[in-house]
Amino acid sequence: MQKNMQRQASTARFLQVLAWLLVAVHELLRSLIVTLRNRFVGRSGSPSVIRSHTLPSGAVVPAEVRRALSAARDTSVLTMSLSDANCVADWVQQMLTQGVEVEAAVCTSVPICFTKAGSNYEAENWMKRLRSHGVVLGTAAYRSVIESYSRNAQISQAEAVLSTMIEVGHVPDIATFNSLISTCAKQGDMHRAVALMNKLELLGVPANVITFGTIIHACAKAGDLRAAEAWFHKMANSPKLEANVINYTAVIVACAKVGDLHKAEMWMNRMTTAGVQPDLISYNNILDVCAKSGDVKSAEHWMNKMVTAGVGPDIISHNTLINTCAKAGLVNRAEWWLNEMLTKGFQPNAISYSAVANACAKGNDVGRAEFWLQRMLDDGIKGNVINYNAVIDACAKAREVDKAEGWLKKMLAHGISADVVSYTAVIDACARVGFHERASAWLEKMTASGIKANVVSYSSVIHACARAGEVAKAGRCLSEMLAAGIAANTVAYNSLIHASAKANDLAGAEKWLQQMVSSGVTPDVITYNTFVSAIAKRGDVSKAQDWFQRMISAGLQPNRVTYQSLMQAYSRAGSPREVERCISGMMAKRMQPDERSLTALMLAYAHAPKGHRDCSQAAASFKQLVARGAPVDFQVVDALGRAIGRGTAASLVSELGLSLSHKGKSKTDSFSQ
After folding, report:
1. pTM score, two decimals?
2. How much is the average pLDDT of 311-318?
3. DSSP string of 436-471, one letter each residue
4. What residue spans define the domains of the chain?
5. How many CA atoms lie within 13 A of 637 on its CB side?
């Protein structure tokens, strides 16, 4: 037994020595082949005369060449002049032409010199020339050119050099692949990034944490959460690789891209379970997911968790939380977090203030919006056009024309260029209150300052002029808009149609409608309602009904305004049956009749010819609609009295148990409003 063990030990030692010898012989043969190639292969790549392997008598390496070679080998030196690179290349070329053997390491430095000089083309060109001399360049030359191309985002050229590198027998290292994959990731070229991952796997080059982190980040940037998770799992299953905080955070970034808060929280919890401490970037990204999801509660939860974990929130953390509250309309919470930021010693920036100001503006709280914008200016923050536009828009919606104009003037005084949104908001403010002259003046100022007005700008002025009854001026504004190459929209045409109809100019209204259709602008419900209403007020029931049918033929659904306008026409004509038909049409479309519907019906009975008045049917219809929930106010009761007589109306109201509230609408014991 002991002899067998000794024999096995001796055999093992012998095999180990033999393996070492084989490795040594392999390296010796490889070195010999390289030397022979350098000596026997000429410029054309074919065997030629044996070249001398020693420097000529008295030949020395010039000082400038030695200096440039030293810089090429020094990884801390990132740049060099093109003249130094040419100096090294010319000297190497001269030595090879004279038949002097030049070390491969020196030849390898030539392309490196050119990449450091910023000339990738020359670097690649010299690689070809040196190979034509039979020089076997080291991997450093190829890696230098590949990484240089990658830095310049020239991925196709970098891949071409990579292919050449593999063809000559070199196996690229993982750093080379990482530079290529990183470039693809920055360009959003996932197809190439994945192809490179597959190539390094085929070559047997083991990917490291940086490699996987890069491809996961590329997936995150592309918003491909599924692929990011798949690559993470592949890394986790690779031996000797442990995911770090960067890898986990990259997946969370992917979650943020698609707004998947549930997944983001799952990965945060998985990270801490694995013993990896989330950093500031991790927490800021999950806050970003909360912001995109509009989840204020979760955002505040993760902010508190970050503080508890000892990771100090920065200004980005606070701004994200403020923005989340602002978008959710929680102005008080947004203001609280802004004050919290100030308490912690952070100086809010334009983003901080604008988020709160915008929230106030969206909530139509002009005073608070102005306060926060002014506070920002008082803190020495200049602000931008977006900050001012938010406040100007809030003033416009609140019909605060003077304030809207004041903030626009202040913005211009502070050297901030107004844009089309700024001017249009002020124009809209003027239009909302009917100040057509001021609206026109601001439109002129905008175009005079070189800012091209848009359809909203012109439409607001047209609407303001139309409201003021200035139809001719509104028409001229429309002509100016069309001449400026801006297509009019339904708002512009509807304003003109409405103004003409209001002025009892139906011919003019129809003229604008024809121009609207010929311009390719499709009339909408408002367009048809304008005609139905205008014609109904003139008492032309037949024509009003005709426009009603044209509306339906155009594929548009009548709304409450349409039916109400038509009912008014029938009511004036004393046609209760037609009014009831309109009410039935409304109810078929799930529109509940209101007090105006009931008033129109009772007045239709009242206006019916004396010989055709049916008081009992009027009372029955009244009862039926009230039972279906139609509200009753003083006007309805007055119309009912005119239809069936005051005394009978009073008795009916009492019988139904109707009592009018202070707002004029009825309350009954049988139903509630």
Report:
1. 0.59
2. 92
3. HHHHHHHHHHHHHTTPPP-HHHHHHHHHHHHHTT-H
4. 574-673
5. 18
